[in-house]
Specification:
Blueprint: H1 2-16, H2 26-37, H3 46-78, H4 80-92, H5 97-112, H6 116-123, H7 136-183, H8 194-221, H9 226-236, H10 245-256, E1 260-262, E2 266-268, H11 277-308
Helix pairs in contact: 1-4, 2-3, 2-7, 3-4, 3-7, 4-7, 5-6, 5-7, 5-11, 6-7, 7-8, 7-10, 7-11, 8-9, 8-10, 8-11, 9-10
Length: 309
């Protein structure tokens, strides 16, 4: 049952303590390792850049996942309580519900006070797009989109891989997701990041769809528009460049009856309701309820596995 205790303790740590200091945060360390490995990689031909990027992905996964496997294996044989506590702390660093909610509320509160420049600055913690020219409505949209997408790839996916492969699986997934966030986009990392982007899409394929379905259920529990969440999810899920992000974002758009837009890229949902700061509140209620449901599902799965074995 140690996996169940690890999961429950990790959830408690996230909800009570939130994120560890940046200086000791593993994801920050992952970013530094990737930045170091990428030095000089852009000077090669596209084919070599692709192969170089593939090597960086595999090396990064090995650097963080392989030593962790042996450390936890040794620690488990040494002291079970210490193993559970340390494994829970590590698992917690692979997801961040409390910080996602806190970051979204910071933007929401600034928008409510019409502090648009400050809101644009805070929004950069949630999205990768240029926020400098976004009006208030588009900033609400970006925040709602981020809540929907990040609840999927920073919570559902981490617990999904924990359920399948334990703490090491969750950490390996977080390495992949971090690589995609850093280099898996068009521009200067076009070829270096192609493999990272592809692998992240593969890794998130099932979790994104599970997250979207849970959002539909959550919207019904939260008395939002569950029928529209389902309809818009099926209609608009393929409008985003990412094969996964559109699922959770379009389901949320349908649940809220709003149109989410990234200018020049996509529009999700129907414009039945205006995008207001209350839209952020509603999206957080739906996302947090969906996360609670998913946590229960994973806990139940662990219990069933323990009983069956």
């Amino acid at each position: 049952m140690e996996a169940l205790f690890i999961l429950l303790l990790a959830l408690v740590i996230d909800l009570t303590l939130g994120e560890p200091p940046r200086v000791i945060h593993p994801v920050v360390g992952m970013g530094k390792v990737v930045s170091f490995l990428m030095r000089g990689g852009r000077s090669y031909s596209p084919t070599v850049q692709f192969l170089y990027g593939l090597g960086v992905v595999l090396a990064s996964i090995g650097i963080f996942a392989a030593p962790l496997y042996f450390v936890l294996f040794y620690l488990k044989s040494l002291n079970l309580v210490a193993y559970i506590v340390i494994a829970a702390v590590i698992l917690k660093t692979t997801f961040s519900l409390k910080e996602l909610r806190r970051a979204a509320l910071r933007v929401r509160n600034l928008l409510a006070e019409d502090k648009l420049d400050e809101a644009r600055f805070e929004l950069r913690a949630l999205v990768g797009r240029d926020t400098g020219q976004l009006d208030k409505s588009l900033m609400v949209s970006a925040t709602v989109e981020s809540v929907a997408e990040n609840s999927g790839d920073s919570f559902f996916a981490s617990l999904f891989y924990f359920l399948l492969f334990g703490v090491v699986g969750a950490v390996a997934y977080r390495v992949i997701n971090t690589l995609d966030a850093m280099i898996g986009h068009h521009g200067e990392f076009e070829y270096l990041g192609k493999f990272a982007a592809w692998l992240d899409s593969v890794a998130n394929f099932i979790p994104a769809r599970l997250a979207a379905l849970t959002i539909v259920l959550s919207s019904w529990i939260c008395r939002a528009k569950a029928t529209d969440a389902w309809r818009i999810m099926l209609r608009d899920r393929g409008k985003t460049e990412s094969p996964n992000a559109g699922w959770t974002m379009s389901a949320t758009a349908g649940a809220l009856g709003v149109q989410l837009e990234k200018a020049g890229h996509y529009k999700l949902g129907d414009n039945h309701n205006p995008l207001l700061t209350s839209s952020i509140d509603a999206s957080l209620r739906i996302a947090m309820t969906a996360a609670f449901i998913w946590s229960l599902i994973v806990v139940l799965a662990e219990v069933i596995y323990h009983v069956a074995t």
